Amino acid sequence: MRIPVIIDCDPGHDDAIALLLAFASEKLDVKAVTIVAGNQTQEKTLNNALKVLSFAGVNVPVAKGDDKPLMRDLIIAPEVHGDSGLDGPELPESNLKACDMLAIELIAKVVRESDKKITLIPTGALTNIAKFLLCYPELKEKIERISLMGGACFGGNWSPAAEFNILVDPEAADIVFKSGIPITMSGLDVTHKALIYDEDVERIRNVGGKVAVMVAELLDFFAKFHMDMGFKGSPLHDPCAVAWVIDPSILTTKKLHVDIETKGEHTLGATVVDYYDVLKKEKNVDVAFDIDRERFVDMLVEAVKYYN
Ligand code: RIB
Ligand code: CA
């Protein structure tokens, strides 16, 4: 029986690959795609999602979220994803259109109409997820789990203490992490091990077909920023959150208590992971620390074959 999921994303190179991985999986039933601002503005992340889905021949309800986080100005990441938010491949205009409801309204509609609990897979800031929980508290019990890409037990990538998705909207993350919904957190601890090397990119390119070539071109561009940062491969963040739902054995997790820093001068947006259980508080999050990288790459190669 397929797992019903909703993907909330900010394409973004790794978000785009996460979408393609999800739609290629026989384990998942992607009911909707909702869009959040982050890697680029809401307009650009929406446009990118529609173009990728259309290019891959996927038809799914897509809804846009707000233009900014709950309480802060938007920060974006053109240095990573380019001015379009999806620099690299030349993609034709989409023949998909966003539906005329807001992201949280589409999430609520899918959850309300589903006879099974829904798994949410956010791969951007948690603005839409937090707003959904605030506006539709009665639907929280129909959320099976949240498998998110964000945070880190150790370190940050947009400040020394914070990972980008959480830092974009710390207040939203705080609401989500306090929601009581089971969370699997694919943070930098694991995504910095989900490295895609040149030989992996060539394996994908050599599958052939327009989607495989497009994914290789996305990875070619995505590598530029990360090689300049000294990585030997590109950390493929967002597909980790999808891969765990497809096959939880691909990640190694530890159940820990996690709080979100919403005030710190130097630590704003940090996921404060109680790694040594000092606080003896409820362990609300399954935090991922390791990945079967070989199987992860095989999963991606199989996914691009699906579109041929
Ligand atoms: O820190 C990495 C995360 O920020 C990824 O989700 C990437 O797409 C950006 O949203
Ligand atoms: Ca993302």
**Percent of residues in helices:** 25-40%
Give the overall silhouette: globular
Beta content: 15-25%
For the largest beta sheet, what order do the strands appear in spatially? 3-2-1-4-5-6-12-9
Radius of gyration: 18 Å
Structural class: alpha/beta
Residue stretches low in confidence (pLDDT < 50, at least 5 long) are none
Give the distance, in angstroms, between the N- and C-terminal Cα atoms.
Answer: 24 Å
Q: Determine the mean pLDDT.
A: 98
Number of strands: 12
Bound molecules: alpha-D-ribofuranose, calcium ion
Features:
308 residues, alpha/beta, eight-stranded mixed sheet, two-stranded antiparallel ribbon, 38% helix, binds alpha-D-ribofuranose, binds calcium ion
How would you describe this protein?
With 308 residues, the protein is an alpha/beta fold. The strands form three sheets. The protein has an eight-stranded mixed beta sheet, sandwiched between helices. A two-stranded antiparallel sheet has the order 7-8. Helix 5 packs across helix 7. The longest helix is centred in the last third of the chain and has 19 residues. The mean pLDDT is 98. Alpha-D-ribofuranose binds next to helix 1, helix 6 and helix 11.
